[in-house]
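From the shared-data thread, chain only:
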Amino acid sequence: MKFNVKADLNYSTFEPAVIIVNVHAARGSQVILEENFIVTGDQHFTEVASFPDQNRLIRINTNSAGNIHCSYQAVVDNAFSVVNCENATPVGAWWLAPDVLCYLNPSRYCQSDKLFRLATHQFGKINNDFEKVLAITEWIYSNVEYLSGSTNAETSAYDTVTQQAGVCRDFAHLGIALCRALTIPARYCAVYAYQLVPQDFHACFEAFIAGRWIIFDATKLVPLNGLVRIAIGRDAADTAVANLFGNVMGNSVQVDSQVGDDGFQPYYYLSGRCEGISYA
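Structure, as tokens:
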């Protein structure tokens, strides 16, 4: 299914500075059919890849104080596969590949070590890993209120459990932390999301199940087959839309994602159906 995605970012710089922007659609299973990126202002820029996740970063070097406008547009075919997870029994850390192991560790926003007791008590008796993560997302959806403005850049998964409120990044962080506490590798995923109201950058997470990265979204705000991946990482610190170095002020962000084909059928996970969507 093809999607037309757009992002416009505006900044004011008060001295020569560096802005690292992360809005490009990721390469891989999804195919970028068309793409255009324009930066206006007194600057020069180059694309670099983050390590080890290969997120596509744009490093902008401003030469003087002034206004910087970044405009990104792309047509992306977000090819995905449906994975049968009926036999997704726990694997254990011994059998995981080295590039997956790092997603078991606690991170800045996902303190899985602090949530071990909660995760074990609530979900530890579920034998199928897909059903276990699905139960995690249902628990978050039922127990955490989606409330705009209720959290900030310092809010962690542990805070979200306490406050019982958050936005998409907090829902994702909590899902990741609970998965890792149960020895299920999980990673943060920043996306463009079709049918998100109002339009904005969106966050969900992927869990490593049956040898594949399976997508989950505890907010239930968008269909799982309407996502265009931007970046992955341990948590939001690895996937920020922009990192600012110097005296820089963000002015505005506008995002849009529209379907480019006819016949879009929204896909959501249903209880009792062990089929997951993988974009990897």
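The chain has a mean pLDDT of 94.
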